[in-house]
Structure formats: C-alpha cells, structure tokens
Amino acid sequence: MNYSYLMKEMLDDELYRHCLYTAEAAVSLAENYGVDKEKAYLAGIVHDYGKKYTKHELLKKARAMGLSLDRITRRQEKLLHAPVGAALLEEELKIEDNEILKAVAYHTTGRKGMSLFEKVIYLADKIEKSREFEGIEEVRRIAGINLDKALLAVIDKAICSVLDRRLLLHPRSVTFRNSLLAEIEENDYN
Ligand SMILES: [Fe+2]
Ligand SMILES: [Fe+2]
Q1: Distance from residue 48's CA to the centre of ligand 2 (Å)
Q2: pLDDT tens digits, residue range 110-148?
Q3: Nearest ligand, measured from the Cα of 126
Q4: Which of 57, 55, 58, 41 is nearest to 7 (CA)?
Q5: How far apart are the CA of 85 and the centre of ligand 1, in A?
Q6: Superfamily of chain region 3-189
C-alpha cells in the first residue's frame, strides 16, 4: 500500500505536509542512529492518522475497538489522537508492525523506556522543518549528536507549555523525562 498517497488523500494539506516532513526528519535521524529507515518513514507519514477524526469520533471508535484509555487521555484531544490513531492504523489500514504502532501510540506523551525507534519518531515529529519554537535550531543541532539530550530539551519545553496553558500533564510525560535524565547521566558517566 502507498501510505504517502493515502495520507495525502485523507489529511488536509497542512497536516499532510507536517506528516511528510516528520517522515523526512525520521529518516535522517534513523540514518544517524542506525534504525530502519523505511520503517521510520512509514511511521512518520502515518503518525497523525488519528487527527483526521474529531474528538467525538475518536472516543466512539476507541469504545468500539474496546480500547481502554486513562482519564487524562480521554479528556485531551491533543493526547487522544495518538493511542486511538495507533489502534486505527491497525484496524483500518492493517498496519501490524508493533514498533510502528507503539511509536504512534506514544508520540504525544512519550513513555519510560522508549525504544530507539520510538524516540526517533517522537523527536522527528517535534523538530521537522516546519516546526518553530524558541531554540529549535539548537535542538536540531543536538539531535545530530545526542538523541536523548535533544529529547530532553523537547520534553522540557512540552511540559512547560502544558503548565503555562494550565492543561492536564500526563504522568507518562514525567516518567519519560525522568528516564531520559537517568539515561543521559548513565551514558555521560560511562
Ligand atoms: Fe500528533
Ligand atoms: Fe505530529
């Protein structure tokens, strides 16, 4: 199946462009960190599949699939499209690769002990070429040298922005951040 074509057909222009750029950023990180480039491209291009549905539709579909969601995820659309999107990729597009599904499911909150592949997709989504935030050039530079340090910079920003907007902070983002710090410390020590 040509997933790029499929996404272009299904998503609006802006979202499709973001998915395409995420796929491209994922390939370049994959190259750098030795993960499967083709799979990284695919995960990048489909990672926001859930965004083609409204919050109401996502909740309805999650119920129909028997997907259990925690209270915070249920309440926040920004989080909801990730786990439900992953389940829908399996259900509707028949994508069965577990690494891809997990990378999609956790691309908003992150999680403790993320695989290298999941980290590549998480970061690619946040630093693809159309993204803008203060200090992004520096994060892009670090991304070429130290994946965990670039991720830490990105998750710190994301957590601060959640606090600034007085939104619910998902505990998985906190454990993701703490696990990154531990991994960075361990690697710096060795
Ligand atoms: Fe997303
Ligand atoms: Fe995204």
Answers
A1: 5
A2: 999 999 999 999 999 999 999 999 999 999 999 999 999
A3: 2
A4: 41
A5: 9
A6: Hypothetical protein af1432 (1.10.3210.10)
| Residue 31: Cβ within 10 Å count | 12
Ligand showing the shortest atom-to-Cα distance for residue 124:
2
Residues in the chain: 190
DSSP H/E element including 122: helix 116-127
Task: Give the residue extent of every domain in the chain.
Answer: 3-189
Please tell me the distance between residue 21's alpha carbon and the centre of ligand 2 in angstroms: 10
Instruction: Give the model confidence (pLDDT) of 42-71 as tens digits.
Output: 999 999 999 999 999 999 999 999 999 999
Contacts 24+ apart (CB under 8 A), 62-68: 62/87, 65/91
- Quote the DSSP letter at residue 51: G
Residue 14 above 90 pLDDT? yes
47 C-alpha to center of ligand 2: Å?
6
Q: What is the Å distance from ligand 2's center to 137 Cα?
A: 18
CA-to-CA distance for 158 and 39, rounded, in angstroms? Answer: 26
Token pair 């690769």 is found at 97
Tell me the three state secondary structure of residue 108: coil
**DSSP conformation letters of 134-181:** TTHHHHHHHHTT-HHHHHHHHHHHHHHHHHHTTPPPPHHHHHHHHHHH
